[in-house]
Amino acid sequence: MRAAVLVGPNRLEMQDVPTPTAGPGELVLRVGANTVCGTDGRILRGEKTAGVRQGVIMGHEFSGYVHEIGEGVEGYSEGDLVGVMPTVPCLRCHYCLNHLEHMCINAKLFGYWIDGGLAEYVLVSAEAIERGAIVVADPGADPAEIALAEPLGCVLNGVDNYGIDIGDTVLIIGAGPIGLLHTMVAKQRGASQIIVVNRSPGRLEVAKEVGATHTVLTGDVDVPEYVKDLTGGLGANVAVQCIGALDLFQTALQSARNGGRVNAFAGFPKGQMASIDPNLIHYNELTVTGGSNMGRNNYRRAVQLIGDGSINVGALLTEPFALEDAGAAIEHVSAGRGIKTAVIPG
C-alpha cells in the first residue's frame, strides 16, 4: 500500500509499504479520510519530537472503514465507518486512574508512534481496541467529517473545563479551525452572544456562518472595550484564546467580567513567556483554565455530535488532497491556507 512516512525533519516520503493484516484481537481499517492540522507541520519540521518515532506513517485525525476483523474481535462489522481516537492511554498511571486519561504519561498516539492515517490502510492493535480507540460512526456520515472528531473532542474537553451556560457571552480569540469549533460548540450550548476576534478578515465570514453573533478585527477596535460595550460594561462570561499569540492572553483577561472564566486553549511558543497583569485574576476573581487533548468520553461525544448533525464540522472542510499529495497538504495547512484540509486515499 502507499503511505506517507516520516523519514526525518522536513522529509516526508510516499512509500510502498506492506499492507497490514489483522491478527487475533486486531482490526484493519481502509482509511476514509485524514484531516491535517498544524501539529502535523510541527512534527514534519522536527519542532515536535516528544513521542514521535522516525519512520512512522503520519496522520492522527482520521476515520476509516472496517476492512478486516481479527479473531476474537466483537462489536464491529466489515464496512462499518469508524472514528479513531489517536491517543491510546495506558489506563494504569496516576492520571489515568484519576479521570485524566488524556494526560496519560505513557500514552502512544497514532501518527506519532503508531502508524497513522496518511495511508491506504491502518492496523489497529488489540491494545488500542480494548482501550476504546475505535468508535462506530453513523453509516451515512462523511468520513472527512468523522475525522474531525479528534479536534472537536479536544474542544469539548476545553469546554468542560471552562463551562458555558445558556445566555452567556463568549469571546473567542482566533478564528482558525479550533476557534471556529469553539464557536460552534458555544452556539450549541446556548450562548447568547458569541464574539469572534481575528487578525485577518477572511475567516471571520466563516465564523458568522457557524454561529458568531459579532466578529471583530483585532486592529480595528480595543477588544476589551468592545466586549464591555456589548455587555453593559460587564465583559464576557467566558474568554477563550485559540491562537498562540502571547500578547492576546492579557486581552482575554481584560475582556472577562468579574467572576468570569478564561481558557488558554491554544498552544503557545515553547520557552516564551506572556506578560500579564495578575491583579486581573486576583481582584476580578477570574477562573483560568487550559485545555489539551481529550479522553474517550469526549471523543465518543464528538463522533455522536457530528453524526447526528448537532455540530456541522463539514462547514470547515475546504480543498481535499489525494494521498500522493500528503506532503503538499501539510504545507498547505502550515501556510495558513484553507480551513480544514482532508487527505482522501484512493
Automatic annotation (TrEMBL):
Keyword presence, Oxidoreductase: yes
- According to its UniProt record, what is one Pfam family this protein matches? ADH_zinc_N
Query: Which family, according to the similarity comment?
Result: Belongs to the zinc-containing alcohol dehydrogenase family.
Select a single GO molecular function from the record's annotations and give it.
zinc ion binding
What keywords are annotated for this sequence in UniProt? Metal-binding, Oxidoreductase, Zinc
- Which coenzymes or cofactors are required? Zn(2+)
Q: Which InterPro entries match?
A: ADH-like_C, ADH-like_N, ADH_Zn_CS, GroES-like_sf, NAD(P)-bd_dom_sf, Zn_alcohol_dh
Annotated ranges, domain Alcohol dehydrogenase-like N-terminal? 23-128
The record places domain Alcohol dehydrogenase-like C-terminal at 177-306
Q: Does the keyword Disulfide bond apply?
A: no
Any idea what this protein is called? Alcohol dehydrogenase
